[in-house]
Amino acid sequence: MSLTIYGEQLSSRLLIGSALYPSPQVMKQAILASESQVVTLSLKRQNPNEQAGQQIWQYLQEIVSQTNGYLLPNTAGCKTAKEAVTLAKMSREIFQTNWIKLEVIGDDYNLQPDPIELLSAAEQLINDGFKVLPYCTDDLVLCQRLYDLGCQVIMPWASPIGTGKGLMNPYNLETIRLRLPEATLILDAGIGKPSDACLAMEMGYDGVLLNSAVALADNPVMMAKAFAQALKAGEQGYVAGVMEQRQTAHPSTPILDTPFWHQN
Amino acid sequence: MNIHINGQAFTVEHESSITVAAALKLYFITAQQSTFAVALNGDFVGRTDYDNTLVHNGDSLDVLLPIQGG
Fold first, then answer.
1. Mean pLDDT across A100-125
2. Sign of CA pseudo-dihedral A139, A145, A146, A152
C-alpha cells in the first residue's frame, strides 16, 4: 500500500512540513518519527553570510538521505502566477527537482488560494516541465481544471493553513474524491488531529500533507508517530470497506432463542 | 548607479551596469559557497547566466536561500 507521486513510489502516505518546530533537532526527530518520505521547504531572502539557514538546510539534507526521501519545495508567500513561476524556477535550480508545491495566495486573512492565478501558474509550470502539486480550495471544478491541465496530484485544503480546524467541508472533499477517481488526492492544510487525517484516508484520499499539527503539538515527536498510525488506520479502513449506514437499529446479538422471550 | 539586493541599497560608482556576478560580490562577504538562487526584477536568473546578465540603475536582485516551509 504505497503512495505514488509522479511515478515515484513512497512507503508513507504522509507528507510533512519542516517549519515551526521548537528546534532543528526536534524537527529532525519528528520528521523521522512520522515515517514520511516527503518534506516540504521553501526559499526566502537571506544573507548567505548568515549561517542560520544553512543549519536547517543541512538537517533537511540529512533527513532526506536517511529516509531515501524527497524534498518538496513550495511557493509560499506568492500572490501572483509570475511570482510563483519565478520561485519555482529558483527552487528547481537549488533542489534539483521538478516537483513543486504550488501555492498562490489570494487572501491574506485566511491564506485562501487564488484559483485564477493558480491555474495560470500551473499551466506555465507544466509547460516548463514541472511536476506540479497545487494547493487549492475544495472546489470540484477547480480541481477538475487542474487535473485537466496535467496536475496528476491535487491538494485541496481541509481548512485554512495553520488553523487546525480539520475537515471543514467533508461533502466537498468526498465529492472531489468521487468525481476524480484517477487523480492522486492529498489533503493539505488545516489538519489538527490524527483523527482528521484518519478521516481523510477513510474517504479514500491518497495522502495527507501537514505541518503545524505536529510542529505545534506539546510533544511533536509523539504526535508525528500518532499521525503515522492514524493514516495507516484510515487507509486500512477504506480498503477494508466501511459498512453502509442504516436508518434503524439492528441487534448485533442474535435474537433467536432470546431468553424470557414473550414472558411479559 | 543604485541597485537593491534583498531590499538593501547599494551604490555602484562610475558604472551604468554591472553583471549579476559582480552585483553578488557586493552582497557576499565570504566566498559564494552557499546554496542560493537569484532573481532580477522578479525574473529567474540561472547560475550559468550570472556573467552575462546585466544589472542596471534601479534594478532589484533577490537572493534566496533554503528555509523551513510547510
1. 97
2. positive
Q: What does the DSSP assignment read for A43-54?
A: EEE--TT--HHH
Q: How far is B70 from chain A (nearest CA, A)?
A: 4
Please give the model's pTM, rounded to 2 decimal places.
Answer: 0.93
Query: Are residues A94 and B43, on separate chains, in Cβ contact within 8 Å?
Result: no
What structural domains and CATH numbers belong to chain A?
A: 12-44+57-240 (3.20.20.70)
Share of chain A above pLDDT 70, in %: 97
Residues in B closer than 8 angstroms to A214, CB to CB, are none
Q: In terms of pLDDT, which residue wins out, A259 or A144?
A: A144
CA dihedral defined by A186, A189, A190, A191, rounded to 10 degrees? 50
Q: What is the ipTM for the molecules in this complex?
A: 0.94
On the CB side of B4, CA atoms within 13 Å amount to 10
Show the domains of chain B with their CATH numbers.
2-64 (3.10.20.30)
CB A52 within 8 A of CB A244: no
B45 min Cα distance to partner chain A (Å): 8
What does the pLDDT look like over B8-55, one tens digit per residue? 999 999 999 999 999 999 887 665 567 899 999 999 999 999 999 999
Distance of CA A112 to the CA centre of its chain: 16
